[in-house]
């Protein structure tokens, strides 16, 4: 008799998404819902949606949510968490939202050690608005606002958020993962679970940066985009855990 | 419980918020309101509250968004430049129908401007400094005691309308010490906050958002907000009329300038010139009717502001041409003195003959 | 047959990430189109070699694939 071994997580509404074919958001949404289910925390989770492709995340994840102004999700999450410290807060933000307009908010939320978990989707462009350059656009990458390819002289360098935040003592768990192939996705889920575990145990600020394919924004097919993540993005954004809770270090 | 204390306006604002049940403050240093965050940074922990000095006024207003969405009574305060930074957030808070109290201890603008008192943020507060059709309920106190009363009222009004309320003080009111009584007040019965995000336990999940991609839906949402503003105009206009019954000339002034005007009125009456005053306490909703009625009885109204003329536009809307509306203003932190006001009234008096 | 998958053709957007992920190459892009005009993925396992390894489902951004495995009685 056939037993189901993989199905839609309970915390995810059974609806189609608005994302483009091959977009990484759908994968990360599923990982998030799986982690929520596995920790059994759906009824005490509050999410903060960004402005960007994932603004409609609340149509897909079944929990209380805010919709933030562009870049301000960490501040909103701070406000909520301070009122209800028992809730599990996550923000879900893109690279334009977090690494551009929202840099002050994410740095200071991390620096205050806010007990929240941030899912940071780095797809190297502004997706929702049509593929403009983002702070994480890599060198040489053409976008609708770096038509000649990003050059340090004109547009500066891609910002490495994970490494940057890892220098802050308030940050407890910082990792960068990717969702461009099954092995990476399995590792990504492990990191996300660790991040939520840090929050559940009240150990402070956690963030997972997901390198995520954006076929439409990159002008590629859905099957080429994952290769671009492997060959182009990962060299600019090395994967790994940049900060882990102290207790874990001693355990290892 | 009402003990009398000598206290600065800024600190009184902080204490009033606490007495109104506010347990969350998110702010940022800016003169002349610094005593508010300073006071609350030690007072809030005493009552189990939470104080955060945010990285910017922008972050502060969105922490307010988060805390208000979680159902807490929450305060933020700033001055001109900081209030400008908060405008986008205030528009979002209005759109998401979140109750909160914002205090603007006004200082001279524009730009970095100065740190002395002014009333040049009137338009920003009453005509909406952010994007979209929205309004704040705007309260304008003129004494420290009234500031305390209005801050406490502000929390009830914010919850009543699920709308941000802004208290327009100024550097004078904030930094001046006056005797103040913190009278206890019976809690207002307000509707339960079943819309907050507190974890979807035994209920469908809640959303705090303002995106409506469907234009029909967004129009309905705008009309819903608009009905609130009409309700405010119907139920919550507050205005003081001072010696207006026998007045031949009326002064229109609010906040600190209204106090100065009362001295001028006393001097003028001693000189046999009967002057009265209309003092708006809510500048949104504005007391248009009061000005309509008064303009039937007098030919001249002198609007006095610490600006180059902002409230005068609303006065004119109320007067609607039935009387001459004159203006006298000082800006940059200069404050009109009572003898300047006396001189302006005497000029009008001479022109009446 | 140790495993099998069921693809929700209406949710599928024909991104074909599952096609590349399947070690046994058991998924193809269908000829017909779904109501949104996408060519959905199609599971073709005539020799019953699918092991239910879930790699395809891991890759699917639309959560359109359910995976089943033979219960060892």
Short structural description:
The complex is a heterotrimer of chains A (252), B (353) and C (73). Chain A has 252 residues and is an alpha/beta fold.
> Quick one: which chains have the greatest interface?
A-B, 34 and 38 residues
- Report the count of strand segments of chain C: 4
Distance between the termini of chain C: 14 Å
Task: Give me the Rg of chain B, rounded.
Answer: 21 Å
What gyration radius of chain C follows from the Cα positions, in whole Å?
Answer: 12 Å
Average of per-residue pLDDT values of chain C: 96
Low-confidence segments of chain B, given as residue ranges, are none
Q: Could you walk me through the main structural features you see in this protein, from its secondary elements to its overall organization?
A:
The complex is a heterotrimer of chains A (252), B (353) and C (73). With 252 residues, chain A is an alpha/beta fold. Chain A has 10 helices and 10 strands. Chain A has a single domain, classed as Thiamin diphosphate (ThDP)-binding fold, Pyr/PP domains (Rossmann fold, 3-Layer(aba) Sandwich), CATH 3.40.50. Chain A has a 7-stranded mixed sheet with strand order 3-2-4-5-9-8-10, sandwiched between helices. Chain A has a two-stranded antiparallel sheet with strand order 6-7. In chain A, strand 6 and strand 7 form a beta hairpin. In chain A, helix 1 packs across helix 7 and helix 3 crosses helix 4. The longest helix of chain A is centred in the C-terminal third of the chain and has 19 residues. Chain A is globular. The model of chain A has no long low-confidence stretch (mean pLDDT 96). With 353 residues, chain B is α/β, with parallel strands linked by helices. Chain B has 2 domains: 213 residues, Thiamin diphosphate (ThDP)-binding fold, Pyr/PP domains (Rossmann fold, 3-Layer(aba) Sandwich); 114 residues, Rossmann fold (3-Layer(aba) Sandwich). Helices cover 42% and strands 20% of the residues of chain B. In chain B, the strands form 3 sheets. Chain B has a 7-stranded mixed sheet, with helices on both faces. Chain B has a 5-stranded mixed sheet with strand order 10-12-11-14-15, with helices on both faces. In chain B, strands 1-8 form a two-stranded antiparallel sheet. In chain B, strand 11, helix 10 and strand 12 form a beta-alpha-beta unit. In chain B, helix 3 runs parallel beside helix 5. The N and C termini of chain B lie far apart (54 Å). The model of chain B has no long low-confidence stretch (mean pLDDT 97). Chain C has 73 residues and is an alpha+beta fold. In chain C, 14% of the residues lie in helices and 23% in strands. The model of chain C has no long low-confidence stretch (mean pLDDT 96). Classes of the chains: A alpha/beta (252), B alpha/beta (353), C alpha+beta (73). At the A-B interface, strand 2, strand 3, helix 2 and helix 4 of A face helix 3, helix 5 and strand 9 of B.
